[in-house]
Amino acid sequence: MAVNDLAAARSSVRATGDRVFQLLLAAMAAGIPLIMGAMLVALIAAARPAIERFGFTFFVSSTWDPVAGEFGVLPFIYGTLVSSALALLISVPLGIGTAVFLSELAPNWLRSPIRFLVELLAAIPSVVYGLWGIFVLVPWVRVTLTPALKGTLGFLPLFAGPPLGIGMLTAGIILSVMVVPFIVAVSTEVMRTVPRMQREAALALGATGWETTRKAVIPYARSGIVGAIFLALARALGETMAVTMVIGNVPQIKASLLAPAYTVSAVIANEFAEATEDLYVSALVFAGLALLLVTVIVNVLARVLVSRVARGPSLIRE
Amino acid sequence: MGVVTFLCTVALLVPLFLILAFLARTGAGALNWDFFTKLPGAAGEPGGGMANAIAGTVLLIVLAGLLGIPIGVLGGVFMAEYPNARLTTLARFTADVMNGVPSIVMGLFAYVLVVLPLRHFSALSGGIALGVMLVPTVMRTTEEIVRLVPQSIREASLALGIPQWRTTLLVVIPTAAAGIVTGVMVGVARIAGETAPLLFTAFGNRFWNWNILQPVAALPLQIFSYAISPFDDWHRQAWAGALVLVAIVLIVNIAARAAASRQVKLR
């Protein structure tokens, strides 16, 4: 009797302990969706005056005049999109090439050190890239790259204008270095998940190593590679410091890639601390909110695409 | 074609080596005792250091850690121990999404949350911005590490009559501790170099400050403002600061890698 009571008491203590502990852990895990929700609510609330005042014209107007209280972010959006596109133009071929090397060709002893170095590329702080950009990349673009481009492709409006060093092209180059690790890491991973049989089947049919990669591995991993590119795109869209330091910070829409430009994140970085008017602050938060929504959408798309590879068979049916 | 892919790899690593070489050469020349012990000098005058910025970065990391580590570690343990809970799916998804949120947006969030109500910039708001960034990284790495703890260890503990919660606390977490600490270190190294979320939260300060309700200096902020300044001596110090920052990142990442490979061997 007494023993039974004791056991019952113990097990109820145990159940209470378990429940309390699980609740504590669950509260912490719930912290992250709560933070995300709070972030959305806080930003929407702070952006509200600007949203009500400008509405959709905010995104299609080119007037950015804090003194007159007129705010339109088109030049910033243009700068963000073009610099990110340039970054992908450079980093996608390099990143996929590296991923193929790492997953298909590299000997084992070389694979892990290279992966580590690529990871390191992602770990270097943005401000250090910016510093290097200002003092090494910008002079190189001005003195070496621009004259070379003008000499060969100078007839294109893309390469018109004086060689300043700072500008869209420099921003694109530095962004490409910063986002390429994401392409490499994720593409390598999805290519490694391609079943060995897929490769062996291609080889058994007489395909060369390269044909196997091109016709058996890459098509299988395709959606994951696209996902990797989206992931890099999201990074490029939101990247702030390094871009701010080399893009020139002039809100204009110029055909030339050599001209200075401005991005959404850069204008927030440069002007937010000095924004005194409530509407000014609100407009900058509105821009940030738009940036947040776009990067979240791109990120979610990326995750969906990457996870599709893991499920494999649906792709084979394509 | 194999050669082309190898050349891609080389081309991709060239900037890394260029940056590290340039940092080592320029930064090491600029690094001296004053850098670690003195306050910044007057504008344009040579000399001075970044002692207050280093201290500020430490203060911000402590604040961020107080917020981010408990939520990240315990939340990660929940996700690993209750993999089928609906909350786990939701938390994992949000963590992945939040990992991709631009750091400048985290700054805006902390600004609206803390700076606006208090009406001035503060170390607290900077710490919150960094802490919020720390949560998803720590949570995801903790989840992955705790999942690696063999089921048999949990069962052995439960079989001895130890309740679930004590099993998690006294058996599972200690088994995974090394990996969890490594994950936290890598997360901290990442936020230590963040600049954008601090621009309008911690804001920067030319003097010492330990009051969390006042603006505080930070190493990345100082590097940024020195880099865009017109003074040669400040450029020199910016390089020194960047070298310190990258050295921290390098050491932590190499240590994490060593720890991870040792764990693999143990298994």
Descriptive report:
The complex is a heterodimer of chains A (318) and B (267). By secondary structure, chain A is mainly alpha-helical. Chain A has 2 domains: 44 residues; 243 residues, Orthogonal Bundle (MetI-like fold). Chain A has 12 helices and 2 strands, in the order H-H-E-E-H-H-H-H-H-H-H-H-H-H. Chain A has a two-stranded antiparallel sheet. In chain A, strand 1 and strand 2 form a beta hairpin. Chain A is flat and about 90 Å long. The C terminus of chain A is likely disordered. The two termini of chain B are 38 Å apart. Chain B has 10 helices and no strands. Chain B has one domain: MetI-like fold, CATH 1.10.3720.10. Chain B is mainly α and 267 residues long. In chain B, helix 4 packs across helix 6 and helix 7 runs antiparallel to helix 8. The longest helix of chain B has 35 residues.
Q: Any key phrases for this structure?
A:
heterodimer; A: 318 residues; mainly alpha; MetI-like fold; 2 domains; 12 helices; 2 strands; flat; disordered C terminus; B: 267 residues
**General form of chain B:** globular
**What is the oligomer described by this structure?**
heterodimer
Reported CATH architecture of chain B: Orthogonal Bundle
**Rg over C-alpha atoms of chain A, rounded to the nearest angstrom:** 25 Å
Determine the fraction of residues in helical runs of chain B and give it as a percent range. Answer: over 70%
Instruction: Tell me the span between the first and last alpha carbons of chain B.
Output: 38 Å
Strand order of the largest sheet of chain A: 1-2
How many distinct domains of chain B? Answer: 1
What is the radius of gyration of chain B computed over CA atoms, rounded to a whole number of angstroms?
Answer: 21 Å
Strand content of chain B: under 5%
CATH secondary-structure class of the largest domain in chain A: Mainly Alpha
Percentage of residues in DSSP E strands of chain A = under 5%
Q: Report the largest inter-chain contact.
A: A-B, 87 and 88 residues
- Name the helicity range of chain A: over 70%
Question: Main beta sheet of chain B, described?
Answer: none
List the helices and strands of chain B in order.
Answer: HHHHHHHHHH
Got a strand count of chain B? 0
CATH superfamily of chain B: MetI-like
Structural class of chain B: mainly alpha
